[in-house]
Amino acid sequence: MMKRIYIPLLLFAGMVWAGMMTGCSKDFLEKPKGGAVTVDTIFHTQMQAQYAVADMYKWCVPSGFVLTESADCREDALTDNVHLTLPGAAWVAANYNYQYYIFGNMTPSAAIDRGPTSASRADAPPFTGWYKAIRKANLVLKNIDNVSDATPGWITDVKGQAIFCRAMAHYSAFRLYGGVPIVTSVLSGDGQISIPRASVQSVVDSIVSWCDQAAALLPTTRAGVDYGKVTSLAALALKARILLYAASPLYNTPSDMKSMVAGARFGDARDSVLCYPTYDKQRWKRAADAAKAVIDAAPASGVKLWVSSTPKPATNANTDTYAGLGDYEAVCNNVYTSEDGKTFGLYGNPEMILVNTFNQKDPDRSQWNQWGFYNTSKIRMNGWGAKNNVPVEFLQLYEKKNGTKWTATPSGLDFKDYFLKLDLDPRAYQSLAFAGQWFNNSRTFAAYYKAATDGSYSKGAIVDDTNAGDATGSAVESVKFVARVDNMNDNHFVWPVFRLAEFYLSYAEALNEYSGPAGEPTTYLNLIRARAGMPAKSPASTDAFREDIQNERTVELAFEMHRYNDLHRWLKAHTVLSQTFHGFAVTASKNGVNPKPTNPFLNWELISYGTRSFPVKYYYVPFPYNQISMNYLGGKDWDGQNPGW
């Protein structure tokens, strides 16, 4: 039986434990200064220890939801997924220093690392926040045996959760900086402690080892009351993800790709913190095996690729009920139908391996912080908020439903008709809102358009505002995690930290790089395409399959916080993100029809969103100046900073 969603006590942080952690010094090791609340107090009983476990989850398990304050946007804005218009949206995107980043002006004091983020709490400091998270996991590991009233089984389970959380926090830092210090204990506050950056190999091997340890300690399934806690399958999933990244060109660089990333290398022994010294094809085999291990272990955990008993690749037009959802949109909404196809609106989609159950309306947040939630999209707030425009260059990655590519028509007279007749991959229509479409009963039509030039129609309600809007009349917005059904009820959303489709694609990608596309790589690629309602592919060469699998991964996992990682590890970010982006801009018109229609025609034209720049040194985020100045990250004659910074 599948689990109903339940947000347990575990995921509402204990204020006692959080308060205990505020008396910490500012260096990355977070050495304690002491205080009235002690470790012994927290780890005396199981009830008290739960607070520490809860706080550990809040710091270590990532969420892609916009959860904190008004100056809070999505990581998508750093990629070609989303374009926020400037200068109006500068304050919205301040958490990522977006206004500097997209023009090639990131600096160590204005970098994209926001630190770990959770509901009801502002972002942690760049870089150092990940070590706050690591410290919380290490404190649990060190002290959980002291809980007096817990069973051995409960203690073993918590140890597995803490080892996983430590691995996840290290991974989160690694994906930004490359090799980072490895911290496996709660360090004392006596004297100067200095732990330099570790090599890529050491970080990857450590994370893999921790994942194996965690998998051995964790259960394969959880009861509904524990929905959101990690399982052994989640540990295998993190292992598979880090090994896929490690096998990819950013870290495992083939000789014919070294020149394109030379600007992000030292050219000497220091490069061990940036990449492996030599390319090794076997790393792809190791990644393939790890992804296949996730796939093979999934049934025992009750996890499967979600397809209705009667496959439903498309969402029913003009509906905002659970019953109308296509299978792909149902996955994103974390809902499923019973196998008889008659029961709708249940939670706990079986494709999810691990979710962050902080939903978008956390009761701890203040009214002002509710603004952060509305920066998920313009249509969610209706008249306010930030417009999450999707560039045409990204839209064109969605194939037509027949599997062919398309190129945007520069202008026309009826955008809604045009966009529907493109007959795109059903995933596009289940992830995007576009001008003129019927969105739901609350919003009716997506009113993204500018006012008619002859005054016959006023501007649409969600075209712009005075703060962070989009006066261009951009016609397409990301709404993958915007409540559309069930009266715009946000409570059914969870953040998919891992879902099974990722590992179908990871397995196909890695196995193709190791042995070519024939057989299972093509099989697993097409299983994902079949669920989406797309025709099968049969690329004949490794290069052709690489192009197909990268595109498939891009659209299947769109807006789920994969695009930044993927563009980097493929060494494609400096080309994809250094170009001029465009959007569809729409203007209301009656187009000569009399009497004028209730809903206007939407005449469109392609407009420029401006030219972005991605310097090669961006492949690794710069460490903050205050950490570099402490001289613990590097070694003799090197301060530990990444190249070019």
From TrEMBL:
GO CC terms on record? cell outer membrane
One matching Pfam family = SusD_RagB
- Cite the SusD-like N-terminal domain residue spans from the record: 127-244
Give yes or no: UniProt keyword Membrane.
yes
PROSITE patterns given in the database record:
PROKAR_LIPOPROTEIN
| Compartment(s) | Cell outer membrane
Record flagged with keyword Transferase = no
- Keywords of this protein's UniProt record, alphabetized? Cell outer membrane, Membrane, Signal
SUPFAM superfamilies listed in its UniProt record: TPR-like (SSF48452)
Q: Which Gene3D superfamilies match?
A: 1.25.40.390
Query: Which intervals hold domain RagB/SusD?
Result: 350-645
Record-stated family: Belongs to the SusD family.
Name assigned to this protein:
RagB/SusD family nutrient uptake outer membrane protein
